[in-house]
Amino acid sequence: MEYERAGLPDAGTATLLPAALSGRLLYVEDNARIAEMTELMLEDIGLDVTWVDCAEGALARLGGAIDRFDLVLTDVVMPGMSGIDLAKRIAHRWPGIPVVLTSGFSDDLVQGYGSEFELLPKPFLRSALIECLLRHLGPTQD
């Protein structure tokens, strides 16, 4: 497998990525500062990112005939519908789209409500984000 160096490394170390990591990611985060930083990381590793600030907005984007997403990365605690409820709706309506939850709250608390989804604890390192993405998107086959 070919690898390339990615920008914005963790703690001064360059992260190696499979050159073929790509896809369209729907990112759901109500905190604009966190969203901006994470979106930069996601785009830097080659993903096409669409950010929405609420679960209802995510459902609207997913329901659009034009949009096709390969993965949904969603915060758990948001005003209105939670990320866990969003993940369950996505799993029911679009079972082929993987969902990853992110939260700064206790893993035990979050997993008690959404244990069928992977949890990426906040704050996360770039390397942890990449490992998670590789599990769900994996390198594409040429």
Distance between the termini: 11 Å
- How many β strands by DSSP? 7
Give the H and E element order: EEEHEHEHEHEH
Total of helices: 5
Helix proportion range: 25-40%
Strand order across the biggest sheet? Answer: 4-3-5-6-7
Low-confidence stretches: 1-15
The biggest beta sheet is recorded as: 5 strands, parallel
> Which structural class do the helices and strands define?
alpha/beta
State which percent range the strand residues make up: 25-35%
User: Rg from C-alpha positions?
Assistant: 15 Å
Instruction: Let me know the average pLDDT.
Output: 82
Global geometry: globular
Question: What's the SSE blueprint?
Answer:
Blueprint: E1 3-10, E2 13-18, E3 23-28, H1 32-44, E4 47-52, H2 55-63, E5 71-75, H3 83-93, E6 99-103, H4 107-114, E7 118-121, H5 126-136
Protein traits:
five-stranded parallel β-sheet, alpha/beta, two-stranded antiparallel ribbon, 37% helix, 142 residues
Q: Can you tell me about this structure?
A:
The protein has five helices and seven strands. The longest helix is centred in the first third of the chain and has 13 residues, at about 30-45. About 35% of the residues lie in helices and about 30% in strands. With about 140 residues, it is α/β, with parallel strands linked by helices. It has helices at about 30-45, 55-65, 85-95, 105-115, 125-135, and strands at about 5-10, 15-20, 25-30, 45-50, 70-75, 100-105, 120. The chain is globular. Strands 4-3-5-6-7 form a five-stranded parallel β-sheet, with helices on both faces. A two-stranded antiparallel ribbon has the order 1-2.
